[in-house]
Protein backbone atom coordinates (compact mmCIF):
# COMPACT_ATOMS: atom_id res chain seq x y z
CA UNK A 1 0.00 0.00 0.00
CA UNK A 2 2.83 2.32 0.85
CA UNK A 3 3.78 2.55 -2.76
CA UNK A 4 0.27 3.14 -3.85
CA UNK A 5 0.15 5.83 -1.25
CA UNK A 6 3.17 7.39 -2.82
CA UNK A 7 1.52 7.13 -6.18
CA UNK A 8 -1.43 8.87 -4.65
CA UNK A 9 0.87 11.62 -3.45
CA UNK A 10 2.42 11.99 -6.81
CA UNK A 11 -0.79 11.75 -8.82
CA UNK A 12 -3.02 13.74 -6.58
CA UNK A 13 -5.12 15.98 -8.82
CA UNK A 14 -3.60 14.62 -12.03
CA UNK A 15 -6.91 13.98 -13.66
CA UNK A 16 -7.95 17.54 -13.10
CA UNK A 17 -7.37 20.35 -15.59
CA UNK A 18 -3.95 21.92 -15.49
CA UNK A 19 -4.99 24.97 -13.53
CA UNK A 20 -6.52 22.79 -10.85
CA UNK A 21 -3.30 20.93 -10.43
CA UNK A 22 -1.66 23.92 -8.90
CA UNK A 23 -0.69 23.06 -5.35
CA UNK A 24 -2.92 25.88 -4.23
CA UNK A 25 -6.05 23.96 -5.08
CA UNK A 26 -5.32 21.10 -2.79
CA UNK A 27 -3.63 23.17 -0.19
CA UNK A 28 -6.33 25.71 0.33
CA UNK A 29 -8.81 23.05 1.07
CA UNK A 30 -6.81 21.64 3.91
CA UNK A 31 -5.66 24.92 5.22
CA UNK A 32 -9.13 26.30 5.33
CA UNK A 33 -10.69 23.30 6.92
CA UNK A 34 -12.39 23.89 10.23
CA UNK A 35 -10.29 22.78 13.14
CA UNK A 36 -10.86 19.10 13.39
CA UNK A 37 -9.07 15.87 12.98
CA UNK A 38 -7.40 17.13 9.84
CA UNK A 39 -6.98 20.76 10.60
CA UNK A 40 -3.89 22.55 9.48
CA UNK A 41 -2.48 22.70 12.99
CA UNK A 42 -2.77 19.02 13.48
CA UNK A 43 -1.08 18.32 10.25
CA UNK A 44 1.80 20.56 10.91
CA UNK A 45 3.04 19.78 14.37
CA UNK A 46 6.40 21.02 15.37
CA UNK A 47 8.99 18.36 15.04
CA UNK A 48 9.51 18.50 18.75
CA UNK A 49 5.83 18.27 19.54
CA UNK A 50 5.36 15.25 21.77
CA UNK A 51 1.89 14.80 20.30
CA UNK A 52 3.34 14.30 16.88
CA UNK A 53 3.27 10.50 16.65
CA UNK A 54 -0.39 10.29 17.62
CA UNK A 55 -1.30 12.89 15.10
CA UNK A 56 0.32 10.84 12.43
CA UNK A 57 -2.15 8.11 12.99
CA UNK A 58 -4.65 10.44 11.48
CA UNK A 59 -3.01 9.99 8.13
CA UNK A 60 -4.09 6.41 8.05
CA UNK A 61 -7.57 6.98 9.31
CA UNK A 62 -10.60 7.62 7.19
CA UNK A 63 -10.37 10.93 5.41
CA UNK A 64 -12.29 13.87 6.68
CA UNK A 65 -14.91 14.90 4.23
CA UNK A 66 -13.98 18.52 4.56
CA UNK A 67 -10.32 17.91 4.04
CA UNK A 68 -10.05 15.75 0.95
CA UNK A 69 -12.56 14.66 -1.61
CA UNK A 70 -13.48 11.04 -1.00
CA UNK A 71 -12.00 8.90 -3.71
CA UNK A 72 -12.98 5.69 -5.31
CA UNK A 73 -11.21 2.98 -3.41
CA UNK A 74 -10.14 2.76 0.13
CA UNK A 75 -6.49 2.91 -0.80
CA UNK A 76 -6.96 6.09 -2.70
CA UNK A 77 -8.73 7.53 0.27
CA UNK A 78 -5.51 8.02 2.19
CA UNK A 79 -5.31 11.58 3.25
CA UNK A 80 -2.26 13.34 2.06
CA UNK A 81 -0.41 14.54 5.09
CA UNK A 82 -0.26 18.27 5.01
CA UNK A 83 3.48 18.06 4.84
CA UNK A 84 3.04 16.91 1.26
CA UNK A 85 0.29 19.26 0.38
CA UNK A 86 1.58 22.55 1.49
CA UNK A 87 4.80 24.37 1.29
CA UNK A 88 6.68 25.38 -1.75
CA UNK A 89 6.66 21.99 -3.36
CA UNK A 90 2.97 21.37 -3.54
CA UNK A 91 1.81 18.07 -4.99
CA UNK A 92 4.14 16.36 -7.42
CA UNK A 93 2.32 15.51 -10.62
CA UNK A 94 2.90 12.11 -12.16
CA UNK A 95 4.11 13.80 -15.31
CA UNK A 96 7.22 14.73 -13.40
CA UNK A 97 7.88 11.14 -12.61
CA UNK A 98 7.22 10.08 -16.17
CA UNK A 99 9.51 12.74 -17.47
CA UNK A 100 12.15 11.48 -15.11
CA UNK A 101 11.62 7.89 -16.17
CA UNK A 102 12.06 8.91 -19.80
CA UNK A 103 15.12 10.86 -18.99
CA UNK A 104 16.69 8.02 -17.10
CA UNK A 105 18.56 6.23 -19.89
CA UNK A 106 20.22 9.49 -20.91
CA UNK A 107 21.20 10.25 -17.39
CA UNK A 108 22.38 7.12 -15.71
CA UNK A 109 22.39 7.65 -12.03
CA UNK A 110 25.06 6.31 -9.74
CA UNK A 111 24.83 2.69 -8.64
CA UNK A 112 22.95 2.79 -5.45
CA UNK A 113 20.96 0.44 -3.36
CA UNK A 114 18.13 2.93 -3.22
CA UNK A 115 15.45 3.73 -5.75
CA UNK A 116 16.33 4.88 -9.23
CA UNK A 117 12.80 5.14 -10.46
CA UNK A 118 9.61 5.97 -8.78
CA UNK A 119 8.34 3.08 -6.76
CA UNK A 120 6.13 0.64 -8.55
CA UNK A 121 2.67 0.30 -7.23
CA UNK A 122 2.33 -2.67 -5.00
CA UNK A 123 -0.91 -4.44 -4.67
CA UNK A 124 -2.47 -5.18 -1.36
CA UNK A 125 -5.24 -3.83 0.69
CA UNK A 126 -3.52 -2.79 3.83
CA UNK A 127 -4.20 0.78 2.90
CA UNK A 128 -5.58 2.05 6.13
CA UNK A 129 -3.10 0.17 8.28
CA UNK A 130 -0.02 1.30 6.55
CA UNK A 131 -0.30 4.98 6.71
CA UNK A 132 3.02 6.72 6.38
CA UNK A 133 4.96 7.04 9.58
CA UNK A 134 7.14 9.96 10.27
CA UNK A 135 9.96 9.73 12.69
CA UNK A 136 9.89 11.94 15.70
CA UNK A 137 12.11 14.51 14.12
CA UNK A 138 9.90 14.64 11.05
CA UNK A 139 12.98 13.87 9.06
CA UNK A 140 11.93 10.89 7.06
CA UNK A 141 8.94 9.04 5.87
CA UNK A 142 9.79 5.53 6.91
CA UNK A 143 6.84 3.76 5.43
CA UNK A 144 8.63 3.47 2.13
CA UNK A 145 9.94 0.00 2.57
CA UNK A 146 12.99 -0.14 0.37
CA UNK A 147 12.26 -3.73 -0.65
CA UNK A 148 9.08 -2.49 -2.24
CA UNK A 149 10.94 -0.04 -4.38
CA UNK A 150 11.97 -1.49 -7.67
CA UNK A 151 15.66 -2.13 -7.83
CA UNK A 152 16.08 -1.22 -4.22
CA UNK A 153 17.40 -4.44 -2.80
CA UNK A 154 17.17 -8.13 -2.88
CA UNK A 155 13.93 -9.53 -1.60
CA UNK A 156 13.93 -9.57 2.17
CA UNK A 157 17.07 -7.53 2.44
CA UNK A 158 16.85 -4.79 4.92
CA UNK A 159 17.81 -1.43 3.62
CA UNK A 160 17.84 1.48 5.95
CA UNK A 161 15.09 3.96 5.31
CA UNK A 162 16.09 6.69 2.90
CA UNK A 163 14.92 10.23 2.80
CA UNK A 164 11.96 10.46 0.51
CA UNK A 165 12.99 11.52 -2.93
CA UNK A 166 10.84 13.51 -5.25
CA UNK A 167 12.37 11.65 -8.14
CA UNK A 168 14.55 8.58 -8.29
CA UNK A 169 18.24 8.50 -9.01
CA UNK A 170 19.59 9.32 -5.64
CA UNK A 171 23.15 9.09 -4.63
CA UNK A 172 23.67 7.56 -1.24
CA UNK A 173 23.78 11.10 0.05
CA UNK A 174 20.28 11.60 -1.23
CA UNK A 175 21.08 13.94 -4.10
CA UNK A 176 21.65 12.66 -7.62
CA UNK A 177 24.58 14.07 -9.44
CA UNK A 178 23.39 14.39 -12.98
CA UNK A 179 19.73 13.70 -13.49
CA UNK A 180 18.00 16.97 -14.17
CA UNK A 181 14.66 17.49 -12.53
CA UNK A 182 12.07 18.25 -15.13
CA UNK A 183 8.96 20.11 -14.49
CA UNK A 184 5.63 19.31 -16.12
CA UNK A 185 6.75 20.99 -19.33
CA UNK A 186 9.91 18.96 -19.49
CA UNK A 187 12.00 21.98 -18.55
CA UNK A 188 14.98 21.62 -16.30
CA UNK A 189 13.44 22.62 -13.04
CA UNK A 190 16.67 23.11 -11.21
CA UNK A 191 16.48 26.82 -11.75
CA UNK A 192 13.15 27.05 -10.06
CA UNK A 193 13.62 24.31 -7.49
CA UNK A 194 13.11 25.71 -4.03
CA UNK A 195 15.29 24.80 -1.12
CA UNK A 196 13.94 21.58 0.24
CA UNK A 197 13.06 21.05 3.85
CA UNK A 198 15.07 18.54 5.81
CA UNK A 199 14.11 14.96 4.94
CA UNK A 200 13.58 15.63 1.25
CA UNK A 201 15.97 15.15 -1.57
CA UNK A 202 15.91 16.07 -5.21
CA UNK A 203 17.68 15.00 -8.32
CA UNK A 204 17.81 18.56 -9.48
CA UNK A 205 21.32 19.64 -10.11
CA UNK A 206 22.10 21.95 -7.30
CA UNK A 207 25.05 24.19 -7.18
CA UNK A 208 27.05 23.57 -4.09
CA UNK A 209 26.95 26.68 -2.03
CA UNK A 210 30.34 28.18 -1.53
CA UNK A 211 31.26 27.73 2.08
CA UNK A 212 30.66 31.07 3.64
CA UNK A 213 33.59 32.35 5.56
CA UNK A 214 32.42 33.40 9.00
CA UNK A 215 31.72 37.09 8.76
CA UNK A 216 33.42 38.83 11.61
CA UNK A 217 30.81 40.64 13.65
CA UNK A 218 31.66 44.28 13.83
CA UNK A 219 32.13 45.73 17.25
CA UNK A 220 29.56 48.26 18.24
CA UNK A 221 32.12 51.02 17.78
CA UNK A 222 32.85 49.85 14.24
CA UNK A 223 29.13 49.94 13.53
CA UNK A 224 28.90 53.38 15.07
CA UNK A 225 31.87 54.50 12.99
CA UNK A 226 30.26 53.04 9.90
CA UNK A 227 26.94 54.66 10.73
CA UNK A 228 28.54 58.02 11.29
CA UNK A 229 30.84 57.66 8.31
CA UNK A 230 28.75 59.96 6.20
CA UNK A 231 28.91 62.71 8.79
CA UNK A 232 32.55 62.18 9.61
CA UNK A 233 33.91 61.71 6.12
CA UNK A 234 32.01 64.70 4.84
CA UNK A 235 33.27 66.76 7.73
CA UNK A 236 36.87 65.62 7.65
CA UNK A 237 37.01 65.89 3.87
CA UNK A 238 35.76 69.43 3.95
CA UNK A 239 37.98 70.35 6.86
CA UNK A 240 41.08 68.99 5.14
CA UNK A 241 40.17 70.90 2.02
CA UNK A 242 39.65 74.06 4.06
CA UNK A 243 42.96 73.91 5.84
CA UNK A 244 45.22 72.79 3.04
CA UNK A 245 48.13 75.21 3.04
CA UNK A 246 46.22 77.86 4.90
CA UNK A 247 46.93 79.62 8.10
CA UNK A 248 44.18 79.91 10.63
CA UNK A 249 42.49 83.27 10.17
CA UNK A 250 39.02 84.76 10.58
CA UNK A 251 37.84 83.48 7.21
CA UNK A 252 38.88 79.90 7.78
CA UNK A 253 37.35 80.02 11.25
CA UNK A 254 34.08 81.28 9.82
CA UNK A 255 34.12 78.60 7.13
CA UNK A 256 34.82 75.95 9.73
CA UNK A 257 31.94 77.18 11.89
CA UNK A 258 29.61 76.91 8.90
CA UNK A 259 30.78 73.37 8.19
CA UNK A 260 30.14 72.28 11.76
CA UNK A 261 26.68 73.81 11.76
CA UNK A 262 25.86 72.06 8.49
CA UNK A 263 26.85 68.79 10.15
CA UNK A 264 24.03 69.39 12.66
CA UNK A 265 26.39 69.95 15.58
CA UNK A 266 24.62 73.18 16.48
CA UNK A 267 25.86 76.75 16.77
CA UNK A 268 26.97 76.39 20.35
CA UNK A 269 29.28 73.44 19.72
CA UNK A 270 30.52 74.90 16.45
CA UNK A 271 31.58 78.04 18.30
CA UNK A 272 33.25 76.03 21.04
CA UNK A 273 35.37 74.30 18.44
CA UNK A 274 36.34 77.46 16.59
CA UNK A 275 37.05 79.36 19.83
CA UNK A 276 39.36 76.63 21.09
CA UNK A 277 41.07 76.34 17.74
CA UNK A 278 41.55 80.09 17.56
CA UNK A 279 42.98 80.29 21.05
CA UNK A 280 45.48 77.52 20.32
CA UNK A 281 46.48 78.08 16.73
CA UNK A 282 45.45 81.50 15.43
CA UNK A 283 47.84 82.68 12.70
CA UNK A 284 49.54 79.30 12.50
CA UNK A 285 49.45 76.43 10.06
CA UNK A 286 46.71 73.97 10.89
CA UNK A 287 46.11 70.50 9.51
CA UNK A 288 42.77 68.75 9.13
CA UNK A 289 43.91 66.32 11.79
CA UNK A 290 44.53 69.13 14.28
CA UNK A 291 40.99 70.34 13.71
CA UNK A 292 39.51 66.84 14.03
CA UNK A 293 41.29 66.34 17.33
CA UNK A 294 40.08 69.62 18.76
CA UNK A 295 36.61 68.97 17.40
CA UNK A 296 36.48 65.53 19.05
CA UNK A 297 37.65 66.97 22.33
CA UNK A 298 35.07 69.77 22.32
CA UNK A 299 32.25 67.45 21.32
CA UNK A 300 33.21 65.07 24.11
CA UNK A 301 33.03 67.96 26.59
CA UNK A 302 29.44 68.63 25.51
CA UNK A 303 28.47 64.98 25.66
CA UNK A 304 30.16 63.87 28.87
CA UNK A 305 27.63 65.45 31.22
CA UNK A 306 24.75 63.69 29.44
CA UNK A 307 26.33 60.26 29.06
CA UNK A 308 24.77 58.70 32.12
CA UNK A 309 23.62 55.27 33.12
CA UNK A 310 19.89 54.73 33.34
CA UNK A 311 19.17 54.85 37.05
CA UNK A 312 16.66 52.29 38.24
CA UNK A 313 15.12 52.81 41.62
CA UNK A 314 14.36 49.25 42.52
CA UNK A 315 12.71 50.26 45.76
CA UNK A 316 9.81 50.91 43.45
CA UNK A 317 8.28 47.66 42.46
CA UNK A 318 8.12 48.21 39.59
CA UNK A 319 10.30 51.01 38.35
CA UNK A 320 8.13 52.34 35.53
CA UNK A 321 9.73 53.38 32.25
CA UNK A 322 7.46 55.12 29.76
CA UNK A 323 8.87 55.09 26.24
CA UNK A 324 7.79 57.86 23.92
CA UNK A 325 8.82 59.17 20.54
CA UNK A 326 7.69 59.66 16.99
CA UNK A 327 6.55 56.47 15.29
CA UNK A 328 9.28 54.55 13.59
CA UNK A 329 12.02 55.95 15.81
CA UNK A 330 12.56 52.55 17.37
CA UNK A 331 10.49 52.56 20.57
CA UNK A 332 9.31 48.98 20.40
CA UNK A 333 12.67 47.60 19.31
CA UNK A 334 14.44 49.54 22.03
CA UNK A 335 11.98 48.24 24.63
CA UNK A 336 12.83 44.72 23.47
CA UNK A 337 16.53 45.41 23.78
CA UNK A 338 16.13 46.96 27.23
CA UNK A 339 13.98 44.07 28.39
CA UNK A 340 16.62 41.66 27.19
CA UNK A 341 19.32 43.42 29.16
CA UNK A 342 17.24 43.64 32.31
CA UNK A 343 15.80 40.16 32.30
CA UNK A 344 19.21 38.83 31.32
CA UNK A 345 20.48 40.40 34.52
CA UNK A 346 17.85 38.54 36.51
CA UNK A 347 15.26 41.29 36.89
CA UNK A 348 11.61 40.57 36.43
CA UNK A 349 10.36 42.71 33.56
CA UNK A 350 6.92 43.43 32.22
CA UNK A 351 6.34 45.15 28.89
CA UNK A 352 3.04 46.85 28.09
CA UNK A 353 1.78 47.42 24.56
CA UNK A 354 0.50 50.97 24.98
CA UNK A 355 0.67 51.69 21.26
CA UNK A 356 -2.91 50.64 20.77
CA UNK A 357 -3.16 52.27 17.36
CA UNK A 358 -1.11 49.78 15.44
CA UNK A 359 -1.83 46.06 15.57
CA UNK A 360 1.68 45.31 14.35
CA UNK A 361 3.17 47.27 17.25
CA UNK A 362 1.27 45.10 19.74
CA UNK A 363 2.36 41.93 17.93
CA UNK A 364 5.92 43.13 17.70
CA UNK A 365 6.12 43.82 21.41
CA UNK A 366 4.58 40.45 22.22
CA UNK A 367 7.32 38.80 20.19
CA UNK A 368 9.96 40.77 22.04
CA UNK A 369 8.36 39.81 25.36
CA UNK A 370 8.47 36.11 24.47
CA UNK A 371 11.97 36.41 23.24
CA UNK A 372 13.20 38.17 26.35
CA UNK A 373 11.09 36.11 28.74
CA UNK A 374 9.31 39.21 29.96
CA UNK A 375 5.75 39.47 31.14
CA UNK A 376 3.49 40.98 28.51
CA UNK A 377 0.30 42.94 28.77
CA UNK A 378 -1.64 44.17 25.80
CA UNK A 379 -5.13 45.12 24.88
CA UNK A 380 -7.21 45.27 21.77
CA UNK A 381 -6.54 47.63 18.94
CA UNK A 382 -7.91 51.11 19.54
CA UNK A 383 -8.37 50.58 23.28
CA UNK A 384 -7.58 53.33 25.76
CA UNK A 385 -3.80 53.41 26.19
CA UNK A 386 -4.03 55.05 29.61
CA UNK A 387 -6.32 52.27 30.81
CA UNK A 388 -3.81 49.73 29.60
CA UNK A 389 -0.99 51.58 31.36
CA UNK A 390 -3.00 51.55 34.60
CA UNK A 391 -3.74 47.83 34.33
CA UNK A 392 -0.13 47.13 33.49
CA UNK A 393 1.07 49.00 36.56
CA UNK A 394 -1.34 47.11 38.81
CA UNK A 395 -0.41 43.77 37.32
CA UNK A 396 3.29 44.50 37.47
CA UNK A 397 2.88 45.38 41.16
CA UNK A 398 0.88 42.24 41.81
CA UNK A 399 3.48 40.13 40.03
CA UNK A 400 6.29 41.89 41.85
CA UNK A 401 7.99 42.95 38.66
CA UNK A 402 11.16 44.96 39.04
CA UNK A 403 10.66 47.01 35.91
CA UNK A 404 7.61 47.88 33.82
CA UNK A 405 8.29 49.30 30.37
CA UNK A 406 5.35 50.89 28.58
CA UNK A 407 5.28 51.39 24.81
CA UNK A 408 3.26 54.28 23.39
CA UNK A 409 2.01 55.52 20.05
CA UNK A 410 3.86 58.36 18.43
CA UNK A 411 1.77 59.84 15.70
CA UNK A 412 2.79 63.46 15.58
CA UNK A 413 0.32 64.01 12.75
CA UNK A 414 -2.34 64.33 15.36
CA UNK A 415 -0.48 66.28 17.95
CA UNK A 416 -3.46 67.30 20.05
CA UNK A 417 -4.67 63.73 20.38
CA UNK A 418 -1.19 62.43 21.07
CA UNK A 419 -0.64 65.08 23.70
CA UNK A 420 -3.93 64.24 25.41
CA UNK A 421 -3.13 60.54 25.35
CA UNK A 422 0.37 60.85 26.75
CA UNK A 423 -0.73 63.30 29.42
CA UNK A 424 -3.46 60.91 30.45
CA UNK A 425 -1.03 58.00 30.67
CA UNK A 426 1.30 60.01 32.91
CA UNK A 427 -1.63 61.17 35.06
CA UNK A 428 -3.06 57.71 35.46
CA UNK A 429 0.28 56.17 36.40
CA UNK A 430 0.69 58.93 38.96
CA UNK A 431 -2.47 57.77 40.70
CA UNK A 432 -0.79 54.50 41.61
CA UNK A 433 2.55 56.07 42.48
CA UNK A 434 3.02 59.85 42.54
CA UNK A 435 6.58 59.40 41.23
CA UNK A 436 5.55 57.26 38.27
CA UNK A 437 6.53 57.11 35.51
CA UNK A 438 9.97 57.09 37.05
CA UNK A 439 11.72 57.38 33.72
CA UNK A 440 10.30 58.88 30.56
CA UNK A 441 12.54 57.79 27.73
CA UNK A 442 12.40 59.25 24.28
CA UNK A 443 13.78 57.43 21.26
CA UNK A 444 15.33 59.51 18.48
CA UNK A 445 16.09 58.21 15.01
CA UNK A 446 19.64 59.25 14.15
CA UNK A 447 18.84 59.38 10.46
CA UNK A 448 16.36 62.24 10.81
CA UNK A 449 18.79 65.09 11.49
CA UNK A 450 17.48 68.48 12.56
CA UNK A 451 13.92 67.27 13.05
CA UNK A 452 15.05 65.34 16.12
CA UNK A 453 15.67 68.65 17.90
CA UNK A 454 12.01 69.61 17.46
CA UNK A 455 10.88 66.16 18.54
CA UNK A 456 12.66 66.48 21.86
CA UNK A 457 11.08 69.88 22.38
CA UNK A 458 7.59 68.52 21.74
CA UNK A 459 7.82 65.30 23.77
CA UNK A 460 9.59 66.98 26.62
CA UNK A 461 6.65 69.33 26.94
CA UNK A 462 4.02 66.65 26.48
CA UNK A 463 5.37 63.81 28.54
CA UNK A 464 8.18 65.21 30.66
CA UNK A 465 10.93 63.30 28.87
CA UNK A 466 13.89 62.87 31.20
CA UNK A 467 16.19 60.66 29.16
CA UNK A 468 17.09 59.88 25.57
CA UNK A 469 18.11 56.95 23.46
CA UNK A 470 19.34 57.54 19.94
CA UNK A 471 18.63 54.67 17.57
CA UNK A 472 19.85 53.67 14.11
CA UNK A 473 23.35 54.98 14.59
CA UNK A 474 24.50 52.06 12.49
CA UNK A 475 22.66 53.33 9.45
CA UNK A 476 23.48 56.43 7.49
CA UNK A 477 23.22 58.41 10.62
CA UNK A 478 23.44 62.11 11.13
CA UNK A 479 24.76 61.82 14.64
CA UNK A 480 25.77 65.47 14.89
CA UNK A 481 22.25 66.30 16.00
CA UNK A 482 22.74 64.45 19.26
CA UNK A 483 25.46 66.95 20.11
CA UNK A 484 23.12 69.85 19.39
CA UNK A 485 20.34 68.24 21.44
CA UNK A 486 22.69 67.57 24.32
CA UNK A 487 23.98 71.11 24.28
CA UNK A 488 20.47 72.50 24.25
CA UNK A 489 18.44 70.16 26.44
CA UNK A 490 21.12 68.59 28.61
CA UNK A 491 18.99 65.48 28.93
CA UNK A 492 20.76 62.25 29.84
CA UNK A 493 21.54 60.01 26.88
CA UNK A 494 21.47 56.48 28.21
CA UNK A 495 21.96 54.23 25.24
CA UNK A 496 22.48 54.22 21.51
CA UNK A 497 21.01 51.73 19.05
CA UNK A 498 23.53 50.32 16.61
CA UNK A 499 21.43 47.68 14.88
CA UNK A 500 18.15 45.81 14.90
CA UNK A 501 19.38 42.89 16.94
CA UNK A 502 18.64 42.26 20.57
CA UNK A 503 22.21 43.06 21.58
CA UNK A 504 22.53 46.17 19.50
CA UNK A 505 21.98 48.65 22.29
CA UNK A 506 25.06 50.17 23.82
CA UNK A 507 25.54 52.47 26.76
CA UNK A 508 26.26 55.91 25.46
CA UNK A 509 29.95 56.81 25.68
CA UNK A 510 30.77 60.47 25.08
CA UNK A 511 34.39 60.00 23.99
CA UNK A 512 33.62 57.17 21.59
CA UNK A 513 30.78 59.07 20.02
CA UNK A 514 32.87 62.21 19.68
CA UNK A 515 35.70 60.25 18.08
CA UNK A 516 33.35 58.54 15.66
CA UNK A 517 31.94 61.89 14.50
CA UNK A 518 35.42 63.31 14.08
CA UNK A 519 36.48 60.23 12.13
CA UNK A 520 39.06 59.22 14.72
CA UNK A 521 39.69 55.80 16.23
CA UNK A 522 38.31 54.73 19.57
N1 LIG B 1 19.38 49.78 11.87
C1 LIG B 1 18.66 49.95 12.96
N2 LIG B 1 17.33 49.79 12.91
C2 LIG B 1 16.62 49.98 14.04
C3 LIG B 1 17.22 50.34 15.25
N3 LIG B 1 16.23 50.46 16.18
C4 LIG B 1 15.07 50.19 15.55
N4 LIG B 1 15.29 49.89 14.25
C5 LIG B 1 14.33 49.54 13.21
O1 LIG B 1 13.49 50.66 13.01
C6 LIG B 1 12.19 50.22 12.62
C7 LIG B 1 11.14 50.89 13.51
O2 LIG B 1 11.36 50.42 14.81
P1 LIG B 1 10.15 50.27 15.84
O3 LIG B 1 10.75 49.74 17.08
O4 LIG B 1 9.02 49.56 15.24
O5 LIG B 1 9.76 51.78 16.01
P2 LIG B 1 8.54 52.38 16.84
O6 LIG B 1 8.97 53.72 17.30
O7 LIG B 1 8.09 51.42 17.87
O8 LIG B 1 7.47 52.52 15.71
P3 LIG B 1 5.87 52.59 15.86
O9 LIG B 1 5.46 51.29 16.48
O10 LIG B 1 5.41 52.74 14.45
O11 LIG B 1 5.56 53.76 16.71
C8 LIG B 1 12.21 48.71 12.74
O12 LIG B 1 12.43 48.18 11.47
C9 LIG B 1 13.40 48.44 13.63
O13 LIG B 1 13.97 47.19 13.40
C10 LIG B 1 18.65 50.51 15.27
O14 LIG B 1 19.28 50.84 16.27
N5 LIG B 1 19.32 50.29 14.09
TrEMBL record:
Comp. bias regions, Basic and acidic residues: 31-44, 179-190
Pfam families from the UniProt entry: SRP54, SRP54_N
Compositional bias per record (Low complexity), positions renumbered to this chain: 110-119
Residue span(s) of domain SRP54-type proteins GTP-binding: 492-505
Localization: Cell inner membrane; Cell membrane; Cytoplasm
Group of enzyme by EC: hydrolase
Gene Ontology terms: cellular component: cytoplasm; plasma membrane
GO biological process: SRP-dependent cotranslational protein targeting to membrane
GO molecular function, one term: signal recognition particle binding
Enzyme Commission number(s): 3.6.5.4
Bilayer topology annotation: Peripheral membrane protein
PANTHER family named among the record's database cross-references: SIGNAL RECOGNITION PARTICLE RECEPTOR SUBUNIT ALPHA
Quaternary structure, from the entry: Part of the signal recognition particle protein translocation system, which is composed of SRP and FtsY. SRP is a ribonucleoprotein composed of Ffh and a 4.5S RNA molecule.
Protein name in UniProt: Signal recognition particle receptor FtsY
